[in-house]
Amino acid sequence: MLSQITYILLDAARMGNTIDEAKELNPAFDSLYRGRSEESLAVVAPYLFLFQHKTEFINWYMEKGWGDSWGILIKSSYPFDELHKHFRKFLIVGTEDNQQLYFRFYDPRVLRIFLPTCDTAQLREFFGPIEYFIMEDADKEFAIKCWLQNGILHSQKIKLADLISGNIPAPVPTPQSHDTQNPPQHTGGFFDRKPASTDQPAPTASEPEVKKPPKPKWNMFD
Questions:
Q1: Dihedral pair phi/psi, residue 71, rounded to 5°
Q2: What's the Cα-to-Cα distance from 221 to each of 103, 147, 174, 206, rounded to whole Å?
Q3: Residue 219: in which H helix or E strand, if any?
Q4: Sign of CA dihedral 63, 64, 65, 66
Q5: How far lies 127's CA from each of 39, 74, 152, in Å?
Q6: pLDDT mean across residues, the chain
Q7: pTM of the model
Q8: What is the DSSP string of 26-62?
């Protein structure tokens, strides 16, 4: 299945200086941040990379990054620029009490818990041009594939060895509920507080700010 993946979103806040290794191994990338934020928040920015199957970059990521919540894998037939524009819509969310927060959807610990809390309209908007996501399970020996079918979120748990080899059994999709009143418990922050100025550094991924995800209002960043 790795041969079908087209993009990967990596989180510099999780990777630290290791993001520089990723950039050296794969120059086909772009930060999701723009303007002053692209410079001042580069060390905590999310970066979209072309996946480039069977390359040193992918071998390096699977050996060094899998299991450490570095990012998420994506299957999409859309060109790089259009997918980049799509993801930028979700970088900042506005809450019901008018707070503006960074939305950490590119952290697999967040995405695998956030998606089941979304209603159908949110799912359709969030998936948009994306065929499916693949992310780490809490058990790093497994991956989770999530996709949208007829407006319903489905998931499949896959052994990591099968993901790498491509010997994946036919999916038995598990529909996910949309209980927005009682979302699943989680251990990381869905959001980071947006600094008053983009010249200030954003909080790191280890600083949870919100215990329960509000229904977001998507905003374009910068």
A1: 175, -165
A2: 11, 25, 33, 22
A3: strand 217-219
A4: positive
A5: 28, 10, 11
A6: 81
A7: 0.79
A8: ---EEES--THHHHHTGGG-EEEEE--SSSHHHHHHH
